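Forum: Protein Structure Q&A
Topic: Joint prediction for protein chains with partners

I've read a bunch of threads here and the consensus seems to be that you should model interacting components together rather than docking separate models afterwards. I'd like to see that in practice. Below is the full input, 660 residues plus whatever partners are listed. Could one of the regulars post the assembled result?
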Amino acid sequence: MIKKLLISIGVLLAVSFQAFSQEVEKFPVITVNELPGAVFEVPRTFSGSSLYGYIDGGADLYLEYGFSGAWVNEVNWQGGKYTIELYKMNSPEDAFGIYSVSRYRCKSTPELTPFTCHNKYQLQIVAGRYYISIINSTGTPADSAASLLIGKAVVKKIGDESADLTKFISDVPIQTVNLNAVLVKGELGVRNGVPDLADLFKDFTSYRALILQQKEQTIVSVIFAEKEKAEAFYVMHSPGNQQSQGITQPENANELVTRISDNQVMLTIKNP
Amino acid sequence: MKVNSLDRRKFVTLVGAGSLALAAKPFSVISAPFEPAPDKPSTNIADAAKTPRHEFSMPGRYPGKVVQVRNGKAVANGIPVEEEAYKMIKKAMLELTGQKSLKKAWRKFVQPGEKIGLKVNPVAGVLLSTSHAVTKSVIKQLIESGIKKEDIVIWDRRAMDLKDVGYTSENYPGIKISGTEMQDEQGAFYDKEGKLYGENNIDKEWYYWADVEGEYDSETIPYMINGGKYSYFTKIVTRDLDKIINIPILKNAGNSVTNAMKNLAYGAITNTGRLHAQLWNDTCAEVCAFSPLRDKVVLNICDGLRGCFNGGPGANPQFICDFNVILASSDPVAMDRIGYDIIVEKRIAEGIQKASTPEILKFLKMSSELGLGVSDKKLIELKVIDLV
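Posted by a regular:
Agreed with the consensus. Here's the joint model:
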């Protein structure tokens, strides 16, 4: 009897907890109000490590960037089927980070937000803290256009807050950042976004780095959580030079290292 | 290898405590995997060697031998073609075994009356799953070799993933479809007694212990089955099956590869969330060293018709491509090494990385040291066949 009672309490607590979790995590979900005639399937939500339940090992990358929750649904609309994924990250910067290692050779960059990438099969958007992915299975122009309408509807619900990346690199057109910059916060991001630079970050943790790969050079702007690490990174790239401010031409003529502030170092690497 | 009752009580308590703690504060960020910290957590890998090997134990009948069959017609309009897949697998099997008869080739690995599991990989969804073209071709050839339909089981970790990508009894009449983690028809993970359905499917006699605590919230636990320091093997591999044919797909994971070893290791045990951060390499290698996998996985057929060269193991459409290859080997380590080359070649061609860095494949080196296969490219006998 007591056992049954305890089990019942346990189940009740679990259900309450789940309800509580769903209460806490709000998503800018779209409905038939935004997409008239659409048929939505039952949405799935994931928070924290439960993302493993959706994308298994792929969750690691999101967790590294700072993942808060995800809302996933499939919708049948205008004769097409679309998978809508809303990943709520801990900050707009984190959302840009996951976007930056996921987008690839954008066919177009619709002006939904500053950070949008559109391909045949996928529309990817950064809006506020959200990384949004809308996937269609056919890649037809009709499905691609419908994805764009779905994306617009979602963005409208979020607002126009956007990641401010000028603290990393200023004076770079935002479209250049949209198309070419990669933001990493750890080893997985590096391995996914800039694998050739893996050695650069090998012995470092607790950093955020924006990497802009251009034709002639690669700019790496790193902000460390601790100034000691920034110092170590700076010293590592300026052999023989211990000064903590200013510009140095190191022995390696392909690199130019600059100490931007106590916590920030910028490295310019000439491409071979 | 039994877990005593104190440990069992302890991990239940920890799961509960973990849920409450996680409810009260934001989730912490998990640090990067692949590179284990210098003070790497210990595991019970020493237990694996206590079970004697037999003739089929990894790396199986043909250590270090990999057959790669290429076919430009293998995929049409993004859909793998079953007829072409069948031809490729047939060619691979004959080449691997040196047999002239397909039946004899298959009989090198499986016999009538044995329960045979096909370990597919549906985890990334319909875009990037082991294709039906390959799975159906394998089944067809097994049946032609005298294996009864009712002795074949398609399995993976999650029953719901299998269903989502079309591994259903409607598509595979007469074949058993089996997953460890499961929901009922209403989508509930728990039965009326408040017990996870998946808990009935795990074998607590067999476990991978690692000194890393799995702490999960209530939403996560149905996908993990249990928290704590034990990862239990599914009964599918410990009890239900006699032989396993591993049918992974070709995917990248960062600049590494997830193919045969990862498909087996992370697909056969519970409580895997804790094993990504510090022990990814170790888990891929060490879990496969335990008897339920080491001694039952007799053949690996990599579905490389479609795969991904970046963004894996998740499915990002822009990174999915037609590799148009089938790999076959009894040696999963050697097969992963060859799979890596195929992916890296594509990554370099796409400008994602500049050079091959096979030295990052630590799990293959570890696997080799555990006697599970050949990781040194120079020692691998690779046969490449082009089907026109």
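Chain A touches chain B through 55 residues (CB under 8 Å).
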